[in-house]
Design a protein that fits this description.
Blueprint: E1 5-8, E2 11-13, E3 18-21, E4 36-42, E5 53-59, E6 64-73, H1 74-77, E7 79-83, E8 92-95, E9 99-110
Antiparallel strand pairs: 1-2, 2-3, 3-4, 4-9, 5-6, 5-9, 6-7, 7-8
């Protein structure tokens, strides 16, 4: 049996992945609220090389953002710009010193129904 540890209501740790439960509409229609996503931990030294994908960004505040990285300026100015798939949600810029951890979303485990 796999080891499962529930850390927060929207994050579950297993032996292989960290499972995130999407809790907002920012990535609709691709990812509905309630969808379960498997993420792979990205080491801090590799944050600056990440682009072109969907990531779970865990902030120091404890907030988890499921967003798309298209512009990664962590090396040049210490900022990461993330985007939403939903057209009514704006992009946002995150300062590197507010990021706790970063996970590349590899798989949709369960897609919530609209």
């Amino acid at each position: 049996m796999a080891y499962i540890q529930i850390m927060k209501p929207n994050i579950i740790h297993t032996d292989e992945y960290v499972i995130f439960i999407n809790n907002d509409s920012a990535m609709m229609p691709q990812l509905m609220p309630g969808s379960m996503l498997a993420g792979h931990y990205i080491e801090t030294y590799a944050w600056a090389t990440q682009a072109s994908g969907v990531y779970a960004i865990v902030l120091d505040s404890g907030r988890v953002l499921i967003r798309r990285i298209k512009e990664n300026d962590l090396l040049s100015n210490g900022r990461l710009t993330v985007y939403c798939d939903h057209p009514e949600h704006p992009s946002m810029t995150i300062d590197a010193d507010t990021i706790h951890s970063l996970y590349f979303i590899e798989e949709i485990i369960k897609q919530a129904v609209k």
